[in-house]
Each structure stands twice: as structure tokens, then as C-alpha cells.
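INFO  loader      accepted 1 record
INFO  loader      residues=330
INFO  predictor   begin
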Amino acid sequence: MQDKTMEFPFLHKQSTRERANESTFSGFLLLGFSNRPQLETPLFVVILIVYFLSFLGNGTIILLSRVDTRLHTPMYFFLSNLSFMDLCLTTCTVPQTLANLKGRDKTITYGGCVTQLFIALGLGGVECVLLAVMAYDRYAAVCRPLHYLAIVHPQLCLRLVLTAWLTGFSNSMLQTALTMTLPLCGKNQVDHFFCEVPVMLKLACADTSINEAELFTVSVFFLVVPLSLILVSYGRITRAVLKIKSAQGRRKAFGTCGSHLLVVVIFFGTLISMYLQPPSSYSQDVNKSIALFYTLVTPLLNPLIYTLRNKEVKGALRRLLRANADVRGS
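INFO  predictor   done
INFO  writer      dumping C-alpha cells
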């Protein structure tokens, strides 16, 4: 096995005092991209810019969904929840990553690691369920347009969103407890940029086969089941749209679903690559890159996809900008 001090040069720079304190340190060392120190500064700049744009984009969708009465519909209620979830996910992982990339101190406390693991896991589960809920909303809008508001009424919307959040964080509580109670036997070097279940399992000095089987089962439940429901919904949507005689009507119907379907492909494709492939099939650097895409790029793509492909959102943004300009001009 390669010596970590050879693979991660910054470990050589620990002072004598730091080494003396290692035995009392109760946190973790996030190695991140330290095996490629030449990438740390460019990564810091890119991640900071993407984080700012993601925060701006998702914040704009939440604001528009609140202030524009034309967007007070089930679709935008679900979309604003998705944007809020993306804001929480990036804020959970990115600030710690930026601090580790810029400074010499690459540690995270035990409590910080538990919190990060719990929140990231919970939000991932929430998004899986929420995307399935949004697919049902699109099914009702396209296949049952005359009864849409009666089917997807405000009380149902609230119950569906609460179910998504409760399901995601109930699973996260179980996963975090099972993972963080494993004996580590002094191992505290996490070969990742944030605390994630598969990586934390590698630190355990006990048999983790039960944990791995349980993680795979839960991953199937949160990935395969929602994805199957989404595919069923879109199968019925496609069948209904093809019956529309007007080409313009078909384009409009597909347009209302295209943005959501694109987000589904990106999100589930990324998570399936992370959780439903054997760890030996790709390197840890590839795993880090996929995780970085999921925690940073996907939350940026969501508002871009929904705003660039959605006339209602672009219209709401223009109305908000005009209203601000009128207030400043008066």
C-alpha cells in the first residue's frame, strides 16, 4: 500500500506539535484533492464561481416563486422546494471544501463530519422523492388537464413535500447512526472532500458487509423506485401527447416536461454512478469528480435548465426587473 505521505505531500508539513496532538484529535482529515496540489488553486476559483452562480440561480427561482402570483402553482411550489434543497446541499459541502482548498488546515471536527453526512444524505433522499413527485405533477397537468387543480390541490402538494423531506431525513438518521458508530481504530484520513458513507465505511476496522448491503438496499429504494415511477409517468405522458393532433400542442406539452426530464437524467445518472456501481470499477479520483458534479454542478444546472427553457420563469424575471427599475426611477 502506498504511503499516504508520498501520495499527499502536505502531510509532510505537519509540525511536531501537530503530530503530538494527533492522538487527542477527535476529528477527521479531509484529503480532498491534496494528491494533486497544483489543482487546488484553480479548483478553488472554479468552485467559488460555480457556488456563487448556483446560489444566485436557485435564490432567484425561490424569490420569483414567492413574489410573482402567476407562479403560485403546484409546479413552481415543487420547483422552489427543489431550489431550496439545492441551496442547502451546496452550503453543506462547498464552504468546507473551499476552506480546505485554500488553507493548510484540512480538518473537520467529528461533529462537523456527522452533521455534513446527515444533511447531505438527507437532501439526496429528498431530491429523489421530490423529482418523482414533480413527475406526477407533470402527468396530472398533461394527462388530466381539466381536473389538474382538483387533483394536485394545495393540501396534497404540502403533504407530498413533507413526505419527501421526512423520508429523506429519516433514512439519513439511520444511515448516519449506522456509519458513525463503527469503530475506526485511530483512522481519521478521509480520502474525499466531504464526509460520505462509502468513504467513511473504508475507515472502519470492523466487518462492514452488513452496512454495505444495507446501503445498497437503501440506494435501490431511493434511486430505482422513484426513477421507475418517473419513467411510468413519462410513458403515460408520451402516450397522451402523441394523441394530440396539433403539432403546436404536442410541442407545448413536451415543453412543459422537457426541463424536468433533463434534470432527472442528470441527477439520477450521477447518483447511480456513485452508489450502484462496484467501488472497484473506478478510481477514487473519479469518485471525487462525480461527487463534485453532484454537489456543485447539478444544483447550478437545475435553475439554468428551468429558466432557459421556461417562458413563465423568464417572464416573471423580466417583470421583477421592470418593477425594480420603475421603483428606482420614481
